[in-house]
Write a structure and sequence with these properties.
Helix content: 25-40%
Strand order of the largest sheet: 1-2-3-4-5-6
Number of strands: 6
Number of domains: 1
CATH class: Alpha Beta
CATH topology: Transcription Regulator spoIIAA
Structural class: alpha/beta
Shape: globular
CATH superfamily: STAS domain
CATH architecture: 2-Layer Sandwich
Strand content: 25-35%
Amino acid sequence: MLARTVGENSSRLGQHPVGEIERRDGAMIVHLVGELDLYNAPALRTALLDVADEQPERLVIDLDEVDFVDSTALGVLIETRARLENKRAFLLAAPGRDTHRALTISGLDRHLSLHDTVESALDAQVS
């Protein structure tokens, strides 16, 4: 397993939206943290599109430590999914209550693969 920490002090609160990116058996897991909003969307976009450009077998976005997500950040998630050749390889894991609500209100829960945990996302069929 390879893990790396990405960026420092790029959002208004001093926290980069990407806490860590790890590789595991052909998958890439992006652990997001804090608030995902207009202020840190550029850093989020850069990090996620860089990962998507690697075309991993599956790309798991871990939302467990996300406190808030706005429409700008939801747009970044959609753009990231669109960048993947295999759209089914884009998986969201562990959305908290508020994040899940944002996904539901926006209707994205009907179009994205949501999983309770990172492990269940890693076990999901994507072909």
